[in-house]
Write the structure tokens for this entry.
Amino acid sequence: MTAYDPNNIFAKILRGELPSHKVFEDEKTVAIMDVMPRGDGHVLILPKAPSRNLLDIDSADLSALTITAQKLAKALKKAFDADGITLQQFSENAGGQVVFHTHFHVIPRHNGVALRPHTVDMADPDLLANQAEQIRAALA
């Protein structure tokens, strides 16, 4: 497995070098809006500690990531009146991973509505800001 790259986009977001729409933070994790969402309310859960993916993450960090994913799943279901939740994690190129910092995708789902395709088109920043506010309100 290739070594962790501390200059990946999520590491830069965690260091405050790049902007994000943060919806949640605790001692070990951060949740941000996905800028190329596959559905309304699509968030990414990141561990603060560096790890490449599921194959090398520390078990305590993985536990924290999972707890945060559950917390956000409940908030997303409430905030977007969702019928369900999709949780995704990709490890390595062959597994579909694009950014090599461990992360979970948490996406609110509605019956009969397919996920949007993953594209390079970024969502409108105002839309993401509004959705982030909905999520923060559901967490409160």
In short: The domain at 9-139 is CATH 3.30.428.10 (HIT family, subunit A).
